[in-house]
Amino acid sequence: MNELAAKAGDNSMHAYDVARIREDFPILSEKVYDKPLVYLDNGASAQKPRQVIEAMDDCMQRYYSNVHRGNHRMSQLSTDAYEQARHKIANFLNAPDHHEVVFTKGGTEAINLVAASYGRKYLNEGDEIILTVMEHHANIVPWQLLRAEKGLVIKVVDCDDDGNFNMDQYDELLSSKTKIVACPHISNVLGTVLPVEEIIRKAHAVGAKVLLDGCQAVPHTKIDVQTLGADFYVFSSHKLYGPTGSGVLWAPKDLLNSMPPYQGGGDMIDRVTFEETTFQDTPHRFEAGTPAIVEVIGFGAAVDYVESIGLDNIHAHEMGLLHYCTERLNAIEGLKIIGNADEKASIVSFVMDDAHISDIGTIIDRAGVAVRVGHHCAQPLMDRFKIPGTARASFGLYNTKGEIDALHDSLLLVKEMFS
């Protein structure tokens, strides 16, 4: 971890001061049932720093207006702030061109956009799509809808009992019929970091495009889309300490411009007549209607905030939390961690003997500990492990070992109640 921290950029903190970072998050001073809030549900949605809240508030109080459509001062200021966020996110991804950043409502809409636009234009009956058993429902259902419409075939790569991606099976499923490979960069349940570089290289060798669901990856690790080589990369703002209602689809400009619009309306048109409509180039051709202006500005502020700390530093801090939590929870008799992949991010999913996951969540909530319980929008993965769901602790840049101790102690209460 020290080596990772040493590699952090010039804009990163020289020493990771989690106590100082926590001061930026007003909600972390709140109490739950008179207990300090221990927020370990970052995989669902992360909390927001003061810098994001203030950027959004500043827009609404000082210069809010619609974007791209007015020549008055307020519209110009809003447009500038909105487009500055696009530039920030392009730099965050090391994208070659800021026009390759398309704003969406979130990662889910970004995947639907690709399926509905690229999929409808380029996929034909009998073509094959490869998914993994680790998919979030958002990376399953859009492809199933497209399958029903166009007569496609969906194939699924399994994982082993520790949650490692089955590369041998992937090799067997790949063929000249494969047109899309869509998979998570990091599993939202198991924390598995998939071998995405190899997945992409092998898919490209048979002529397939690759979509990566990066929702669980961007808060925890540096993303360089040029090095990565994926054709589509999607993620949401709210897991990256930004607001809900905003997300990103990244793809090369030429590829985006070859795709038909996903929705029709204002701001995505070049010229409209009742006989014919022509469309703008990317990104505007995919941003119909009034966008989430304030949310996108908050998104840009979240990127600024994360980069001010440094993703290498964040990654090192979170890996320390992951190892500590794994060690502490493995010491609880009757608790089983689901997902022990060779490469793993800061997510710990678990079940306990005799205790239903809903009971786990309810009991530890009374101790102020917030985790997610359920199937985590990954029911096929739950079926694969023959469980109805898990309790999931997911860590962010502001979590501490003391909070993991609080999780551990609250789980001992669960064990005592159900033993």
In short:
The chain is of the alpha/beta class and 419 residues long. It has 15 helices and 17 strands. The relative contact order is 0.17.
Would you mind describing this structure in some detail?
The chain folds into 2 domains: 2-32 and 310-418, Aspartate Aminotransferase, domain 1 (Alpha-Beta Complex); 53-307, Type I PLP-dependent aspartate aminotransferase-like (Major domain) (Aspartate Aminotransferase, domain 2, 3-Layer(aba) Sandwich), CATH 3.40.640.10. The strands form 5 sheets. The protein has a 7-stranded mixed beta sheet, sandwiched between helices. Strands 13-14-17-16 form a 4-stranded antiparallel beta sheet, with helices on one face. Strands 1-2 form a two-stranded antiparallel sheet. A hairpin with a 4-residue loop joins β11 and β12. The two termini are 38 Å apart. With 419 residues, it is an alpha/beta fold. The protein is globular, with a radius of gyration of 22 Å. Helices cover 40% and strands 16% of the residues.
